[in-house]
Design goal:
Helix content is 25%, strand content 29%. It is α/β, with parallel strands linked by helices. It has three domains: 182 residues, Rossmann fold (3-Layer(aba) Sandwich); 58 residues, SH3 type barrels; 79 residues, Translation factors (Elongation Factor Tu (Ef-tu), domain 3), CATH 2.40.30.10. The strands form four sheets. It has a six-stranded antiparallel β-barrel with strand order 12-15-14-13-16-17. It has a five-stranded parallel sheet with strand order 3-2-1-4-7, sandwiched between helices. A hairpin with a 5-residue loop joins β5 and β6. α1 packs across α7 and α4 runs antiparallel to α5. It starts with a strand and ends with a strand.
Length: 356
């Protein structure tokens, strides 16, 4: 097969490209430009948009003997990922931009561009597994390395995209990937992983939002509307947050307070006790199914944050999707993705809209 390997300049995408070539595929390394002008090197050195990433990607391609191209998706990334991120925070929701990037850039803009140029599919360094059932349906499963599993952020992919996707690292553990990279002489074998958002590489999300959106001051209140403090923007808070509230008035009984609701329309952050964060039911919108939509209610587990534990649940399909949790969970923020599993198999996902 003729494949594009998305080479970010990191070790995972490098080994994925190497394995695709070793499997006999005709592989071209493609590095995506997502930001112009280049970010400040001191701030960006930990992100996948770091100035040296393109150079590292080229060095990987040269080491593997791959053709190398640079494709520019700056406009799409700014419009579909960064603007979405800002709009969601302004609306009092907590988005997942990495998931959004997979949905709109890597497996939409990049894959579509690859298919339009005569390629058959896309290779990435994601940790997830694909399996084709007897009925020909491509199933998305959790990776073998549970600590690196990225099936959550791939849950928005559909059958057409999964059929074109290749995840060579799905059965591997991260230490083995690094060891393989070193054995192949890849120049990024010891390169550290990036953990922050690629367009906020210093990890200061609140600072980035404030610098981009400007101050939007308002009150921090309890559930009775009593003013307890003040803030510079509701976008700096998320449901379940405890730190950074800086309240001068302690709660009755001295129990800690948490952010329980955001009201950007009146510039209020509402706080309350931990018990106010309890969630038993979730309503989620804009569902996406990795296979076909379930015909009726199904049981399984649901993951409600990128690194959260799964919770046993029952899902009733529709728009909105209704999710009944078998056990309560706490601090679930609208805007995040609810991803539904049966065993290791991803069934689908939807955006959390309401909780109760």
């Amino acid at each position: 097969m003729k494949l594009v390997a998305a080479v970010s300049g990191g070790v995972d995408s490098a080994v994925a490209a190497a394995r695709a070539k070793a499997a006999g595929h005709d592989v071209t390394g493609v590095h995506m430009i997502l930001s112009r002008p280049p970010l400040d090197p001191a701030a960006a050195e930990r992100g996948c948009l770091a100035p040296d990433s393109q150079a590292d990607a080229r060095r990987v391609a040269d080491a593997l003997g791959l053709p190398f191209e640079v494709w520019d998706f700056t406009e799409q990334f700014q419009r579909l990922v960064v603007a979405y991120f800002l709009e969601e925070y302004q609306a009092g929701r907590t988005p997942n931009p990495c998931l959004r990037c997979n949905e709109t850039i890597k497996f939409a803009a990049l894959l579509d561009a690859a298919l339009g140029r005569g390629f058959d599919g896309l290779v990435t360094g994601h940790y997830a597994r694909l399996a084709t059932g007897a009925d020909g349906v491509v199933e998305l499963h959790r990776a073998s390395d549970q600590a690196k599993d990225q099936s959550y952020v791939l849950s928005v992919l559909n059958q057409g995209q999964l059929r074109r996707a290749h995840f060579p690292l799905g059965d591997s553990l991260k230490p083995a990937v690094r060891q393989e990279a070193a054995g192949l002489g890849l120049p990024v074998a010891a390169k550290t992983d990036s953990y922050d958002l690629c367009f906020i590489p210093d990890g200061d999300t609140a600072g980035y939002l404030r610098a981009t959106l400007g101050d939007a001051p308002g009150a921090i209140v309890d559930n009775n509307g009593t003013v307890l403090g003040h803030h510079r923007g509701t976008f700096a808070y998320t449901i379940g947050q405890r730190r950074g509230l800086r309240l001068g008035q302690p709660a009755n009984g001295g129990e800690p307070r948490y952010v329980t609701a955001l009201h950007p329309e009146r510039a209020e952050v509402e706080v309350g006790p931990h018990s106010a964060l309890r969630v038993d039911h979730i309503q989620a919108i804009r569902p996406s199914w990795t296979e076909t939509a379930p015909a009726g209610p199904i049981s399984g587990t649901v993951q409600l944050r990128a690194h959260a534990r799964e919770v046993p649940a029952r899902l009733t399909p529709g728009d909105p999707v209704q999710i009944e949790l078998d056990q309560p969970t706490y601090g679930i923020a609208p805007g995040q993705m609810a991803v539904f599993y049966q065993g290791s198999r991803v069934i689908g996902s939807a955006t959390i809209e309401l909780t109760s």
